[in-house]
Amino acid sequence: DGSFPNNVPYDYAYYTVFNNAATHEGGFLRGLTGILEKDVTPMKIDFDMDPFDEFVFSIGYSADKDPSLRHCSMENESINGVPWYKNLWLKDCAMTGGASGGPWMRDLDQGGVGTLISVNSWGFTHKPGMAGPVLRTREGSWAECLFDTARSANDPG
Length: 157
Fold this sequence. Notes:
mainly beta; 5-stranded mixed sheet; 3-stranded antiparallel sheet; 8 strands; 8% helix; globular
């Protein structure tokens, strides 16, 4: 069953964009090529570090504050929101539904560049907090395997 709460260890995804000139245009700003890897700095993902007790920045679009981009910045903890899985947890984060999929980044610099360690996943309806899945391969996550599969995918078009 791929629905909550059974999906909490796997609540992540990757979006693959193929550089096919027939499907892209240069963009709205001068100097853009339309080739994603040339126009956008990719975010680093760390599948090896121990993600617990790290100071992280999380961003997302909470439905209750739409269309404002929201953020949380604090040291993460862990929580067993479901008895059989230890999620990463931002205890005082007030983001709500709609923020799912937003990045959790550590070592964020003043330019907004950091390293991805998790994503917004779920929270309780009766108190603040945001959970994120553990992406660390050593912890049993399949996130790195899925990432490698997405990177090596062929354009179906």
